[in-house]
Amino acid sequence: MNQVFRSIEFLRHRLTAGDEHDIHSPFIYDLYTNIITENNAYYVFDKIESVRSKMLLSEEKILVQDFGTGGVEQKQRVLKLSFIARHFVKPEKEARLLFRLVNFFRPLNILELGTSLGITTLYLATPNSKSKVVTIEGCPNTAAVAGKNFELAGITNIIQEVGEFSKSLPIALSHFKKIDFAYFDGNHRKDATLQYFNSCLQYHHADSIFVFDDIYWSKEMADAWNEIRNHPAVTVSIDLYSMGIVLFRDTLPKQHFKLRF
User: Fold this and answer.
1) Cβ contacts of residue 27 below 8 Å, gap of 6+?
2) In a domain, 237, yes or no
């Protein structure tokens, strides 16, 4: 059922999404043309993608505890790392966008909800070695693999918190006085997404950026996205279909953009 919903929403997005010609805000125009749709390769991409390649080729199996998208009957599954890398890790195109956003805005305090194998974490952590990236993963076995990948890549500005999000998120938030950048990719249920958003909202400031993955994963995830973008604290939201970006800048009028990516 979710697949049918995603297919319909994808077609709807393709038919209704705009591009730079539909943007009248100079700030959003610059963000879209120079960051969102920019396609230059950075030297660290090859190093990170070599980690992804290693995972895609791995026959190693781990017991995965699924707290997010899996149903009750899928709470524990034995999966190959290659399967996880192929189906549950953000594709290179979207991961590169996360890198570009961090590289452009230079946030120092970064939170990621959903480490998985750590590929997107590396994209968040490599733009600035002085940043602090706190990443949460519910499954300890998956988190252990991610930790090895961080060591393999030689990245040391990552702090891992492990455990079901209702318990690990408060611990992760204790690392911050404020959050400059947050990436939500740990749970695709409406109530949980809104709960995590509201918890992180207490740490936001005018220049914070929150990015939500898979905003059309399901009807309830789309409903959560709509509530988030209409929240009084949010001034600008950008719907790219595969992810949604919200800004809190009070210098910008409240606007919603649906753009091609």
Assistant:
1) 249, 252
2) yes
pLDDT 10s digits, 22-66: 999 999 999 999 999 998 889 999 999 999 999 999 999 999 987
| CA separation for the pair 164, 58 (Å, rounded) | 26
Domain count, the chain: 1
Range of the domain at 155: 2-40+90-258
* CATH classification at residue 240: 3.40.50.150
Give a yes or no: residue 55 inside a domain: no
Mean pLDDT of the chain: 95
Contact (CB, 8 A) for 32 and 258:
no
The model's confidence at residue 71, banded by pLDDT at 50, 70 and 90, is very low
Q: Cα separation of 189 and 221, whole Å?
A: 6
158: helix, coil or strand? strand
What pTM was computed for the model? Answer: 0.95
Residue in 110, 117, 107 with CA at minimum distance from that of residue 152: 117
182, part of any domain = yes
